Amino acid sequence: MSKRKLIFLICLFVALSGGIIFYYLYQTLYGNTYSLKETTYLYIDEKKDFNNLCAQLSKISSPQNLKTFRRLAEYLNYPENMRTGKYRIKNGMSQMGLLNTLRSGHQTAVRLIFNNIRFKTDLAKRLGEQLMIGEQPILALLNDSAYCDSLGFNTETINIMFIPNTYEIYWNISADGLFRRMKKEYDVFWTQKRQEKAQGIGLTPVEVGILASIVEEETSVADEYPVVAGLYINRLQRGMLLQADPTVKYAVGDFSLQRILYEHLEVDSPYNTYKYTGLPPGPLRTPSIRVINAVLNHTKHRYLYMCAKEDFSGRHNFAITLTEHNRNAKRYQSELNRRKIR
Description:
By secondary structure, the chain is mostly helical. The chain is built from 15 helices and 6 strands.
């Protein structure tokens, strides 16, 4: 074999070997490592260390791929620089693709959803179970008078700031960051047009929220929202007691009451609108957008009284005069007695 041919063969061997090694390395780093039937998410909080992360990865990765991930992560000093958040692993993602996502803190936002909330404890729990911070830091700020004041609310009205909706938000957001975001969303919701409608009624946005919470507790029938809102606005403008049963239930602390008795009406609470005129100091629940809009666009009528229908449909009989209302109330009370509801 000639010297020239030998050199050629050696060069060819080196080139092929280098190509094979390069291909292997490239596939190891950038090849399809994670073959998934559906998108998977990694949740990294302040308590999770690198071993915890690897344990979570072991559920979707082969032992060899996990071993490679460990070595590569350690080479890039990732275990000492882990960042909290929710991270998406897509089908076909590579080792470097995942590590670059984790190292850069490139999170996937969560869809934060909350509705049908009554108490601050309920709000804190609902939000906390969807976010890294948990409920306690949220509840602490809801009860912090100085902090609530800095946002333009107090500890009794602060949950009005949380407009029920679906929000894209990062899982590792701080409690303060969450409140600032919700305040921004609240300000966006309260457009100039909505503010002008509130002024036309003679209410502030917060007072609209309080009234909306009463309306939402008063009826579960959506098409009654504007009618009930109009009724309470009529009473407010006449200086009449609202006499809203849901405020009594709130004052008593029992929303399951089916029959409001004299002893309930005597409960001394600023939320008891049978004893105190005007709106209560805070909402009975976090009002929905639909009910807030129903208050702002309430039906204009002359009704001053309402009573649940005796067919227990959830609807109400409305009345202009007390005499008419008493007849409606008598029919409802007779049905309560017939059904032995005490």
